[in-house]
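Technical annex B. To support the medicinal chemistry partners, we prepared a structural model of the target in complex with 2-acetamido-2-deoxy-beta-D-glucopyranose, based solely on the information shown next.
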Amino acid sequence: MPLGLLMLGLSLLAAVQTSTVKNCHPGCHCEVESFGLFDSFSLTRVDCSGLGPGVSMPIPIPLDTTHLDLSANAMGPLSDTMLAGPGYTTLVSLDLSSNYITEINHNALSKLRYLDTLDLSHNQLVSLHLNCFSGLPLAEVDLSHNGFQEFDLDVFAAKVNGEPVSVDLSHNRLSSVTTTSRGKVLHIQTLNLAGNQLSSVPSLAGLPLRYLNLDSNLIAEIEEGAFAPLKDLVYLSISGLGRLQQIKSNGFKGLQSLQVLDLSNNPKLVSISPAVFSGLDSLQELNLTGSGVTALPTNMLTHLPSIKSITLGRSIHCWRTKKQAQFHRQMGPVQHDEVLNCNVEGVVL
Ligand SMILES: *[C@@H]1O[C@H](CO)[C@@H](O)[C@H](O)[C@H]1NC(C)=O
């Protein structure tokens, strides 16, 4: 193919055409985005947010709508019919945030067979029926800023495909998070539990978690093996725990894939014994900014063979560098002629 034609083809593929839709409900804004050669692929986005209370549901939307924003419509409890109109079956993404939703009926979401992204944040949910997500191929669910006090993650066992799901449960009132499904695999990869009332690390055995956030909870102590079954975890944030005073030896045991550990802003955490870090074979970044820890135990590097960066105190940063000296006196099994250097004298490593 001549280069000119190829370039033309590529630019047609990349071009995004936007056009408005004629049969759009008054008060909504509808837009079709077409991609590809001859506009072969299109997305219909419909924004019906903030229509005010009293609007009758389901709001008519164009057939083939893929993205629908129904936020801030004072919807109240979700009945089985409110999301059951024509056009709803093709939805890939649905925003139901800020709607005073107190309850979701058993079949309220059952027509949404292609739903990938669901935003239920800023509502008043305190519980969910165990089969309310049944049959949905969800990949991202935002349940933050609701009123949950306890949550059973098994609600995600009913979704249809085995694709991983990312769940945001931050800023609820959770004191308990459970997963009881025996035999069923829960494909939760990302879990945000920040800003809740958890007083200990919940048992998340059996989840293939890669990202976990437990910031700003009431956890005072991390027990030995608290995270033990989470062998796929790559990123762990346990920051802003005003009560955290102690991490027991082997507290991070089993986290063989962990690369980033954020322990910042834990002012009551004043010392860490080297054995706390045992098992963290992949850890590259450790953040202790704003914690009470001001010096590091001498032999901690023996437990952290992959460490690249440690941030300590308010402005102390240590990083791994090639050693210049001729003799190869190492600190722990950090690569042959590499050492950790800090930008402040007198940090004990
Ligand atoms: C460490 O944590 C502090 C406070 O949460 C944050 O501001 C900083 O960017 C983090 N540093 C690194 C190197 O991640």
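Notes passed to the chemistry partners:
The chain has two domains: 15-162, 219-349.
The chain has a mean pLDDT of 86.
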